[in-house]
Amino acid sequence: MDKLAFPSTPPTALRLGPAPGLAAERHAARRPLASGGRALLLWLHDGGFTGGSLASARARAEMLAEAGADVIAIDYPLAPEHRFPAALAAAFEALKALAAKPAKLTGSAQTALFVAGEEAGGNLAAALALMARDQHAPALAGQLLISPMLDPQLGSASMREGECGGCECLYAKGWQAYLGGTTRADHPYAAPLNASRLGGLPDALVLGVAGHPLNDEARRYAAALRAHGGTARDLTLPAIAAAHVLAPVHDFLSQATGRALSIPA
């Protein structure tokens, strides 16, 4: 083990946001960042807007902690019982709670705040970045999106090649449950890929998987962020596994934290 690595500790439970708050778990960083700061990362699990839990998020959260993030995974409300924007509103309250006490959660005054998520959670993370920009707070250092669900039209080549997009597709079912129809699909917080204003957003690392139905829209979103003047790197990986993820995520967290805190990365 790296001599500079932090000690491994089990996740701890907490609640975030207005009482009673969202159930959450904190996974402490397992290694230092090259910048010398700390990255406090709000993690939003996958599950197509209708599934997923803290338990199912644990493996991903541990992997991100191994990459150097102090990870807070939250158990956001699920559709169809809670349609858009319920999950997003709850996640934003949790994000503001993290922004109010970052040093308490990481033990360092040099802490930068990130949003991150996978598939449906990636949608929520991208939307949180838009909300934080529009409301001028909290200040985010970066966004990490893994195979994000960003476009309810489901018309990409990778979606067709994956034989998804029809009424029985899990992504189509997830979008229907989340939006409850087509009238909300035009809202930029619901479908960030269709947003007309993508400038002024934090640095992004967008990870896709070769052959995954969501890979094309992940790459399109990164390209759109760059077209609006943003810093966005997209990578298509063989799989979302430690062997492929740790190095690029660690580098992203180190560099974005350094920029946000003006620490040489």
From TrEMBL:
Q: What is this protein called?
A: Acetyl esterase/lipase
**So which domain of life are we looking at?**
Bacteria
**Which keywords does this Swiss-Prot/TrEMBL entry list?**
Hydrolase
Family annotation (InterPro entries): AB_hydrolase_3 (IPR013094), AB_hydrolase_fold (IPR029058), GDXG_lipolytic_enzyme (IPR050300)
Q: Which Pfam families match?
A: Abhydrolase_3
- Occurrences of domain Alpha/beta hydrolase fold-3 (ranges): 41-231
